[in-house]
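FORM 7B - TANDEM STRUCTURE REPORT

SECTION 1: FIRST PROTEIN
SEQUENCE AND TOKENS:
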Amino acid sequence: MSKSDSLLRMEQLRKKAERGAELEAWGYVGILLLPVGLGLLFAGSRMRENANQEMDELYKEVFIREPLTGNFENVSFEPYEGFSEEMVEGFRLCRMGNEFDSEAYGRCDRNGVHIELSDVTVRDYDRLAKKNNYTTFFKGRMMVLHFPDRIGSGETVFSRSFSDRALSPGEEQGKVSIGNAEYDGKFDLYVSELKDASGRVLPRLLEKLGSLSERHKGVAAKLDGNRLILAVNDGDGEAFYRKKKKKVSLEEELAKVQRDIDDIKAMIGLISR
């Protein structure tokens, strides 16, 4: 199936899922008219679930595997595997809740840099709340870029919009000025020792983090030895291909994915210089 055919099929499935949801609604309304109401409810539920499952499979193929294969080397992809909860907690970027999920695990290479990535959802469920029981701390993609040489010593950068940060009171005391008016207005920088902050890597990293932050709800990064850990948060909304109040263009979303990849590739080039 070509890329245009895949996008067309996803749009068809989205409409099918919406029709299924409408049937479910009529099923609830007509449940007093048994068995008609139950039939509508069952048919609508099956239609919606089947369409969403196929959309999910197409999404992983068209929006993750194919872009990785087209832009990186030595690509491997496991759609239903992901980072472990312990690994994400060890990144010390996002606040952890009592519910965790990760899938769409990919590995690839670019100019001697090895990359691992996965979609991650971190939520907290409040059993005492009467409604809105879930608080989403992170829903997006996390990446670990392994460089051949050391690039940092624990420097952590958050865009101002990245709210649920994994910072202890002691770490919060390590906030310092970046020394650039534009970047200081967009990011918060935390270091253990100011003298250890990488004056070579940080400006190059911030240049591309700025581009990513314009397209997403929040971004965070940590320079940890030879690793660059990235967290790109899209917030607590449903994935773009599911039912949303505001319709989106699949072609525009795919173009945004490519711009993200281009920024990651440029980031690798800048840091590797």
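SECTION 2: SECOND PROTEIN
SEQUENCE AND TOKENS:
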Amino acid sequence: MTRIPIGLACILIMAKAYSVEGSIALPDSARVFSVGEKIVLNGVPMHMRGFRSSESVDDLLAWFSRELGSPLVENHLGKTTVLGKAVGHRYLSVQLERDANGVRGVVAESDFEAAAEMRLLRQEQLDRWLFGLPSGSAVRSDMVSADRGRRAWHAVFENTVDAQINSERTQALMAAEGFVLENESSAADMPDGPSWRSGQGRTLYFKGADKEAIVTISRDTQRKTTIVINTVSTLGRLP
């Protein structure tokens, strides 16, 4: 199988995600802010928009209920109310939360048909990391996003191997993607916490051509190691 660099994989995944266009209308009172132009969360392309409104949650719920039409699923999670509706191969959702400045909302449209189309590409990208990390590693989450000319990849892996070995394996993987290690902070340099007190914490800083990355490796008292990878690149370059 031809090896696809992680950056190219991100670009190809995002290209497929561009088919997801936001179709949820917003009320006149909405003041829109960016939460990421395009996002692929755990393999599912999403189009998201954030907004603020001075209207009440009840008024906004009534407005979106009329706009989306029935049937709707309504859930309450603490102070947050979520409306959801399946439309063909897409799922529309509205999240509303009251705060001191009014109401903060997020509308999202997910495309499960596009997720099926990009499954193999995403899996190839993740399998390459799982092959390079210690045996027994697992993916907990991954997200590709594009916003304002920048592309990002965020992934979380877990295993039961110590932080030093994970650090060595991660550095080799990042080097293969064109990243150069610039700095590494160990447990002694980091804030207090179970992972750092045990000497099992690492933060690695990488640079590349128009790209950068931060990798955080931590180990808890249950001997579970978490590797969090964040890469960012400018548009037109590989993340």
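SECTION 3: OBSERVATIONS ON SECOND PROTEIN
Residues 93 and 224 are 34 Å apart (CA to CA).
The helical segments are 6-17, 57-68, 112-117, 119-132, 163-176, 194-197.

SECTION 4: SIGNATURE
Preparer initials: ____
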